Amino acid sequence: MTRYRISRIINKFSPISASKSAVFLSIVMLLLPVPARAETATAHVQNFQNGLISVMKEAEQLGVQGRYDRLKPLISDTFNLPLMAALSAGPYWKGADATQRNRLVGAFTRMSVATLATLFDGYSGETFTLDGEKQGPQGITFVVTYLTSPSRQNGVEISYVARQSAGTWRLIDVIVDGGISEMRVRISEYSQTLKAGGIDALSELLENKAAQLLTP
C-alpha cells in the first residue's frame, strides 16, 4: 500500500452530523430482522480484516482483477450487501421489480468489491487493531478497530456497524474516524441519479464505475 492510501480511504467519505447518523441508523434498524441468536461480532470483523491483509500482502502479484476475485467472496460473506443496496436506492427500492432489484444488488456488490480491490493495492506493514465493542440500540453493535501504518503517526479509527441477520452477523456500514458513514455518503451521492433515471440509472452508474475501476 502506498503511503497515501490511508488518506485516500479517509478522503473518499464526507463528514456527516451526529443527528443525521442517528436518523440513518434508525432507518436501518426498521429494515432489519430481530436477532435470532448470539454470535461474536468482533470475530466476524477480525475474519474480514485478516482476509483483507492477506490480499494486501499479495496485491502486486494478484493485480486488480486478482484482488477482486479474492475479495468478492470475503466481502459477500461479511457485509449485508442486499440491504445496503436497498438503502442506497431509498424509496425507489419499494417500487422496483425483482429483476431491477437483482440488477442493483449485483451492481452494488461489484462496485463495492472493485473499490476495495483498487484502494488496497499493496502492503507496507499496515495492521488492524481491535479496540472492543460498543453496544448500540436494538441489537446494533459497533466494532471499533484502528488501521495503522509505519508511514503514519496516528492510526485511522474504523468502526464497523454490525447486526445479526437470520442468526448471522453481517456488517451494514463503516464509520471512519468517529462520524463518517460510508452508507450515508453513498445515499447522498446517488440521490441525483435516482431522481433523474430511477433504479435502472443507478444500476448503470454502479456498473460503469466498477468497470472503470477494474480497467488496467
Primary descriptors:
single chain; 216 residues; alpha+beta; Nuclear Transport Factor 2, Chain: A; five-stranded antiparallel beta sheet; 18% strand
Give the arrangement of secondary structure elements:
Layout: H1 5-11, H2 18-31, H3 41-57, H4 59-78, H5 81-89, H6 98-119, E1 127-135, E2 141-148, E3 156-165, E4 168-176, E5 180-181, H7 182-214
Antiparallel strand pairs: 1-2, 2-3, 3-4, 4-5
Structure in words:
The protein is α+β, with helices and mostly antiparallel strands. It has a single domain, classed as Tgt2/MlaC (Nuclear Transport Factor 2, Chain: A, Roll). Helices cover 56% and strands 18% of the residues. Strands 1-2-3-4-5 form a five-stranded antiparallel beta sheet. Helix 5 (81-89) crosses helix 6 (98-119). The protein is globular and about 45 Å long. Residues 9-38 have low confidence and may be disordered.
Give the N-terminus to C-terminus distance in angstroms. Answer: 17 Å
Q: Please, how many domains? A: 1
Cross-sheet strand order for the largest sheet: 1-2-3-4-5
Which stretches of 5+ consecutive residues score pLDDT under 50?
Answer: 9-38
The portion of residues forming beta strands comes to 15-25%
Radius of gyration: 17 Å
The coarse overall form would be globular
Helix content: 55-70%
- The CATH architecture classification is Roll
The CATH class name reads Alpha Beta
Largest sheet: 5 strands, antiparallel
SSE run:
HHHHHHEEEEEH
Number of strands: 5
Could you name the CATH homologous superfamily?
A: Tgt2/MlaC
Number of helices: 7
Instruction: Report the mean per-residue pLDDT as an integer.
Output: 85
- Given helix and strand content, the structural type is alpha+beta
